[in-house]
């Protein structure tokens, strides 16, 4: 979410004005968003989260039988979303 927000500002707003000057409005916006995001992330990192261990979840995540090689992943991708003719 944070990365999308920053990317939108970066890609959606020009670095320079129509006169060829630095777009300080964009720079202020970027600095404000970055500082806001850092504050939020720090707040989340300081919060203690009580997460109980779930053995079934751990077992599922560590199960190697679900791992597919690159070719199988590519074939599955094409089945789900076929290439469009160019």
UniProtKB/TrEMBL annotation:
It holds the Pfam family RasGEF. The keyword 4Fe-4S does not apply. The keyword Thylakoid does not apply. GO terms for biological process: Ras protein signal transduction. Residues 1-83 form the Ras-GEF domain. It comes from Marmota monax (Woodchuck). Keywords: Guanine-nucleotide releasing factor. This is Ras-GEF domain-containing protein. Gene3D superfamilies: Ras guanine-nucleotide exchange factors catalytic domain (1.10.840.10). One of its GO terms (molecular function) is guanyl-nucleotide exchange factor activity. The lineage of its organism: Eukaryota, Metazoa, Chordata, Craniata, Vertebrata. GO terms for cellular component: plasma membrane.
């Amino acid at each position: 979410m944070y990365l999308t927000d920053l990317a939108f500002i970066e890609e959606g707003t020009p670095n320079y004005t129509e006169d060829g000057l630095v777009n300080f409005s964009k720079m202020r916006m970027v600095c404000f968003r970055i500082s806001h995001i850092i504050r939020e992330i720090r707040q989340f990192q300081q919060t203690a989260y009580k997460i109980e261990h779930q053995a079934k979840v751990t077992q599922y995540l560590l199960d190697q039988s679900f791992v597919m090689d690159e070719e199988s992943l590519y074939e599955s991708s094409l089945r789900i979303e076929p290439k469009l003719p160019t």
